[in-house]
């Protein structure tokens, strides 16, 4: 016996409509075409599926078995069909994001809050990309977008620039370096540097300043949360280097001082890596637009303060 979705739809329609005429209308078929479809199905099954003499037309015990199957299968099929139509129209889809920086949450969450209002049918998720290979996961389609400051030349992957940011030195107001116009690599030699718990190569202060100068801090203390890093800095337990959008909240706080790294400053660029085939999707384009604008708002707010 070879069952098709049209058979299940026909059985369900006749059961719900109570007769061939109304069921055919629901299915956009002629009554004759629907009658032939049911007859062919009964011949394949070798049993009667409907009690035709009953008014309204009722299912036989064998027909009831097909109805139960239709009620299980068809809603799932129809849900997938709706999703696919939404994908085709660009209204629905998936945006699973991996981020390669702890501090990115400070600007990413407001971006996603704005994004969901316009694209409520997009399935959004965030995964810290520091705990797995984010870019290989992107290529495998395990995630759909990677926020990174380290672009690579990869087939089928596009790195779209988001925004530039400055890495900023943060210390307690009473710290001996507080009166400096800027800090240099040597200034870290006798300091406890408080960082996020990631490899040194992934931290701007190491990759852009300390490693090229051959300088290491006296000690490194790793802390998971930005708020705890700032609390320890205010207590003069160490110093930190954070993106400018993070330090906006402490620039006017009398407990802190914020200084550039080197006289010229250390500026980095953040990128969104996506599969090339996804860049033109409307919701991806909208996310990139929001991801570019929100950090600028934070940076401007910090400068105004």
From TrEMBL:
UniProt-recorded name of the protein: HTH-type transcriptional regulator MetR
GO molecular function, one term: DNA binding
Gene Ontology BP terms: methionine biosynthetic process
Provenance organism: Meridianimarinicoccus roseus
Domain called HTH lysR-type: residue spans: 3-60
Record GO cellular component, one term: protein-DNA complex
Record-linked Pfam families: HTH_1 (PF00126), LysR_substrate (PF03466)
Annotated compartments: Cytoplasm
Coiled-coil annotated residue ranges, if any: none
Lineage: Bacteria, Pseudomonadati, Pseudomonadota, Alphaproteobacteria, Rhodobacterales
Main location: cytoplasm
Gene3D superfamilies assigned to the protein according to its UniProt record, in alphabetical order: Periplasmic binding protein-like II, Winged helix-like DNA-binding domain superfamily/Winged helix DNA-binding domain
Keywords: Amino-acid biosynthesis, Cytoplasm, DNA-binding, Methionine biosynthesis, Transcription, Transcription regulation
Family statement drawn from the similarity comment of this UniProt entry: Belongs to the LysR transcriptional regulatory family.
């Amino acid at each position: 016996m070879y069952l098709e979705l049209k058979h299940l739809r026909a059985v369900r329609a006749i059961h719900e409509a109570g007769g061939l005429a109304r069921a055919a209308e629901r299915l956009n078929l002629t009554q004759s075409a629907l009658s032939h479809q049911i007859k062919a199905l009964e011949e394949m099954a070798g049993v009667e599926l409907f009690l035709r003499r009953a008014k309204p037309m009722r299912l036989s015990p064998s027909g009831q078995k097909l109805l139960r199957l239709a009620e299980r299968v068809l809603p799932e099929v129809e849900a997938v069909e709706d999703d696919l139509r939404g994908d085709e129209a660009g209204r629905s889809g998936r945006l699973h994001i991996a981020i390669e920086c702890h501090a990115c949450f400070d600007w990413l969450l407001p971006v996603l809050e704005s994004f969901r209002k316009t694209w409520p049918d997009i399935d959004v998720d965030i995964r810290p990309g520091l705990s797995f290979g984010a870019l290989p996961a992107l290529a495998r389609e395990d995630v759909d977008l990677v926020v990174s400051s380290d672009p690579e030349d990869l087939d089928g992957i596009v790195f779209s620039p988001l925004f530039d940011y400055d890495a900023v030195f943060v210390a307690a107001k009473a710290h001996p370096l507080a009166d400096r116009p800027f800090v240099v690599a040597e200034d870290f030699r006798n300091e406890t540097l408080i960082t996020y718990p990631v490899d040194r190569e992934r931290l701007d202060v190491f990759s852009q300043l300390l490693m090229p100068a051959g300088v290491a801090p006296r000690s490194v203390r790793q802390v998971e949360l930005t708020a705890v890093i700032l609390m320890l800095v205010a207590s003069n337990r160490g110093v930190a280097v954070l993106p400018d959008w993070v330090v906006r909240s402490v620039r006017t706080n009398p407990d802190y001082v914020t200084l550039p790294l080197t006289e010229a400053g250390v500026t980095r660029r953040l990128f969104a890596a996506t599969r090339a085939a996804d860049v033109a999707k409307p919701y991806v384009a909208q996310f990139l637009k929001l991801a570019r604008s929100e950090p600028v708002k934070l940076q401007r707010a910090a400068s105004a303060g």
